[in-house]
């Protein structure tokens, strides 16, 4: 029994680093990784003020990366008849909270999401939920913008969809070039928004 125990410890210690395709780590493994990063920062995980930090960080990750557990297409599942309205629907200033995939630093800003109704419209809160479902993942702003616009266009099938994101990246503001106040603007115009007069219309509505 003792031999078997010693053997299993030895085996675990010599296991190779898990590949990126390995199953999701346990909570315990994730907390151990946070302790490693605390030591990398130069502090002691055993220090009293840091004892509960790994558990807190792992819980915070569940919020910051909650988008992986959501199905963005399903969020647009409930639709309504447009009741005779066929002009621009625009939800402005949706808060964007994301994390850049290069540095795992915060991205924060706003998204504007618009569409030109086709057969169906969607509850406006669902546009904000759609933004959040893609934002709460590791992202670059370009992909975030495209994923929101493409999903809206594919699932709701409006006559056009448009997404604009204006955001600041902490990886620029607090390290590297270390410049605050820099914002990145990305946009994706689909369907009728790609052509005049809708293109001019939506860009004016978004003050771009
Ligand atoms: N296109 C794009 N770039 C991003 C985004 N978020 C961060 N970046 C950039 O990703 C790049 C990564 O560049 P690297 O040279 O590999 O990393 P680095 O040495 O840390 O670069 P610096 O930030 O310039 O110090 C940086 O230029 C970041 O500014 C994003 O959403 N979109
Ligand atoms: Zn970054």
UniProtKB/TrEMBL annotation:
Domain GTP cyclohydrolase I residue range list: 31-201
InterPro entries reported for this sequence: GTP-CH-I_C/QueF, GTP-CH-I_N, GTP_CycHdrlase_I, GTP_CycHdrlase_I_CS, GTP_CycHdrlase_I_dom
Metabolic or biological pathway, per its Swiss-Prot or TrEMBL entry: Cofactor biosynthesis; 7,8-dihydroneopterin triphosphate biosynthesis; 7,8-dihydroneopterin triphosphate from GTP: step 1/1
The keyword GTP-binding appears for this protein: yes
One GO cellular component, as annotated: cytoplasm
Enzyme nomenclature, EC number: 3.5.4.16
Residue numbers binding Zn(2+): 100, 103, 171
HAMAP family named in the record: FolE
Catalytic activity reported: GTP + H2O = 7,8-dihydroneopterin 3'-triphosphate + formate + H(+)
GO biological process, one term: tetrahydrofolate biosynthetic process
Family classification: Belongs to the GTP cyclohydrolase I family.
Gene: folE
GO molecular function, a single term: GTP binding
Protein name (Swiss-Prot/TrEMBL): GTP cyclohydrolase 1
UniProt organism field: Aerolutibacter ruishenii
Recorded superkingdom: Bacteria
